[in-house]
Design brief:
It is a single chain. This protein is an alpha/beta fold. It folds into 2 domains: about 35 residues, no CATH class; about 300 residues, Deoxyhypusine Synthase (3-Layer(aba) Sandwich). It is about 45% helix and about 10% strand. The strands form 2 sheets. A 6-stranded parallel sheet has the order 5-3-2-6-7-8, sandwiched between helices. It has a two-stranded antiparallel ribbon with strand order 1-4. Helix 12 links the parallel strand 6 and strand 7.
Length: about 350
């Protein structure tokens, strides 16, 4: 960087902000660098944006779908049924894609049937869930709105930042606070909300946020400290669920980075405490649902570091490393619009048969 440019950057340092600033994230700090002034951002009405997914696009449970076929699928379903029969946890970590594909009802139903005991997602997942419950639609045309400098900058979605602040003040998790708010405020499409279903049934729904990765982080009312506090509470809730995973199942649905990384750290924490108590967390079943093609020999481990797939985290973390001491892993490659409804259909049918036996 030229010397003159460095000098100009230092001149751009913002003046100190009054301690009465509305948002703690805007308070003056000791940084020597200029910070972006979020108060200049103009939020537009969500009605102007439109939605790529509407409530009417969310698939009903009896919708026709292309069945997914895999020789090991029934094995995973059997393990899921056995885990719930023995009151062991079934944790489902997901990206936001399942919501954007209109698959929310399947996840809500699994919560209501007590076939899933914890749902975890990233920051985008809780945003799409919140928008869908509040206004009957979510997702936007990114190419259109980023060109106009309006991507993600919508007034109604900014309401979720107020929920985050309340969550931090109440020492709640972000997912918990979102579900509680959707239920208490009687959002018109709350029946499509995974977070609200979790709140109603006492099933943790946690949101694991990367600062700067979600649209609400751009809004003037975003409080970074509150966001960190609420999402960290969710991480501790998630780690507690993982601590009971012996004999249970961990499913990773369409999350290439957040799911594997959060699971890895939580499992290390849980095993650390278990080892001190002379216990083990080793008998774990893991299942990954994604689009990446893996060889049938995936359980032997990923290729070397000179191959791009070495860095595909679900493979080395969920399918190999964390089940190396006695667990079993499964991988299913396919469109979530086929794999997730097939999982729901087969699991609910198998659970019904098990109860009747």
């Amino acid at each position: 960087m030229p010397r003159s440019t460095i000098g100009n950057a230092r001149k751009l340092r913002p003046p100190e902000t009054s301690a009465t600033s509305q948002h703690p994230g805007d308070l003056a700090s000791m940084t020597r660098y200029a910070c972006f002034d979020r108060q200049q951002i103009a939020l537009a009405d969500l009605a102007e944006r439109g939605h790529d997914l509407h409530a009417a696009d969310c698939k009903p449970l009896d919708a026709r779908f292309e069945p997914y076929r895999h020789p090991e699928f029934a094995d995973l379903v059997d393990r899921l049924v056995r885990a719930r029969r023995e009151r062991r946890p079934v944790i489902l970590m997901m990206g936001a894609h399942a919501i954007k594909l209109g698959l929310s009802r399947y996840l809500v139903d699994l919560i209501e049937r007590d076939l899933v005991t914890h749902v975890a997602t990233n920051g985008a997942g809780i945003i799409h869930d919140f928008e869908l419950a509040a206004g009957g639609g979510t997702s936007e045309d990114v190419s259109k709105w980023i060109a106009r400098g309006q991507f993600g900058l919508w007034q109604q979605t900014s309401r979720l930042n107020d929920v985050v602040l309340q969550a931090a003040n109440r020492r709640e998790g972000l997912g918990e606070a979102a579900g509680r708010t959707i239920e208490e405020k009687q959002f018109p499409f709350r029946h499509l909300s995974i977070a609200a279903a979790g709140w109603r049934h006492g099933v943790p729904v946690t949101s694991h946020v990367g600062i700067g990765s979600d649209i609400i982080h751009s809004h003037p009312n975003c409080d970074g400290a509150a966001l960190g506090a609420a999402s960290y509470t969710d991480f501790l809730i998630f780690a507690h669920s993982v601590s009971g995973l012996e004999g249970g199942v961990f499913l990773n649905v369409g999350s290439a980075v957040t799911g594997p990384e959060v699971y890895l750290k939580a499992l290390s924490m849980a095993r650390n405490v278990a080892h001190q108590r002379g216990q083990r967390i080793a008998d774990i079943t893991t299942g990954v649902f994604d689009l990446v093609d893996l060889p049938s020999s995936f359980r032997q481990g990923p290729p070397g570091k000179d191959h791009p797939l070495y860095y595909y985290r679900p493979w080395k973390t969920i399918l190999v490393r964390t089940v190396a001491d006695g667990g079993q892993s499964y991988y299913f490659s396919g469109d979530l619009r086929s794999t997730l409804p097939t999982l729901w259909h087969n699991l609910t049918q198998a659970a019904r048969r098990a109860r009747a036996a």
